Records
---
Amino acid sequence: MLKQLKLFRIIALLEGLSYILLLFIAVPIKYGLDDPQFVKLLGMPHGLLFIAYLIMAVMISADLKWSNKTLFVALVASIIPFGTFYIDKKYLRNVKA
């Protein structure tokens, strides 16, 4: 379970970073400078990380015995900027085996 938790924390970090880069750098460049290059570059990796985050959240919720409410918060956090960082700090960082 610790390997799975470590992998989930890494995916959460990368998903959060890719989302922030997409929202606050790539999209403004696309619409402000009419250059969609960065959205194309970051879009697919972010999408894959987003899906991996959702799947891993559901999988790990059973191991950590999360309530439905906690799982819902973790899933919603994936669509809120900086949300995955909150989940890591509040629910994942201090988990003991």
---
Amino acid sequence: MEQPWTLRQRPERLERRLEFGDYETTRVFLEQLNHLSEQSGRFPDISFGRTYVNLTLRSETEDGPIGAPETAFAEAIDRLVP
């Protein structure tokens, strides 16, 4: 079962870890995420390994609260998950 986005504080941000069955699935997801980021102009912080991706979404304004733009981007990312 996939973990949902977690709201963290100081600074406020959304975090999520995604697990994949193999490297190919991870690679395809990262390529799709890159395309989504290029289209939207939003770029999450990413760390990844062979079968996982950690994502952090921050507010568009420095140290600002998480709002509708961040939530909408998180939902768009969720639609990429196989």
